[in-house]
Amino acid sequence: MTAMNKVLLATAVTSMLASSLTFAAPKEAPPDFVKRISDQMIAQLKQNKGQLQNPAVINKLVSQNIEPYVDEQGFSRLVMGQYYSNQYTTAAQRGQFTKNFRDSIIKTYAKGLAQYSNEGYTLRPYRDTGSQYPVVMMDFKATNGNKIPVGFQLVDKNNEWKIRNINVSGIDLALTFRDQFKSTVQQNGGNIDKAIASFKPDADVAKK
Fold it and tell me: Maximum distance among all alpha carbons in the chain?
């Protein structure tokens, strides 16, 4: 093969890779994704408003409308921080943490959604910075009329957007939960299994 042919081949391969990478990106723009799942959740809340105090109903809503869109492993990695490594934990322990953390967060979501009272939201103008973790900002309207700024940090998982982290009123939940988990480990004398079993993330800090 001549030098020119090698150059042409390399160019063709590079073009094919670039095309495949472009094709593999999520089809939805980040704000469209956030709007879709938010509208979907609100529609379900309105439809089931008379049954939101029923645990079975609210848990089903969370399972169908929130769980599929959260990067549980990525969120757990952020929360465990330094403990999400072979130096401190095993794969089994990390898996157990992810399960426990998911269950705790689901209960938190369910508790909040059960109090739904026709609150709405507005999306802020989105600026694409080319970040690996794009952030979509919105303002939720509370029952007292106040606006609560919420930022959803997303990540591309298998060509679909997932929520990687949430910022509420300037409070980074993953970092806040990380501090809480680190404190739980210390309170349990460094026993990771006990810390994982007893860890209860406190999302109410975002209201303080």
Answer: 74
Query: What region does 71 belong to: left with phi over 0, alpha with psi -120 to 50, or beta?
Result: beta
Q: Which CATH number fits domain 28-203: 3.40.50.2000, 3.10.450.710, 3.40.640.10, 3.40.440.10?
A: 3.10.450.710
> What is d(CA 25, CA 125) in angstroms, rounded to the nearest whole number?
21
Q: Pairing mode, if any, of strands 171-172 and 160-168?
A: antiparallel
pLDDT digit string, tens, across residues 97-116? 999 998 888 888 888 888 88
pLDDT, tens digit, for every residue of 132-169?
999 999 998 877 888 889 999 999 999 999 999 999 89
Tokens of 50: 């008379």
188 and 96 Cβ atoms separated by less than 8 Å: no
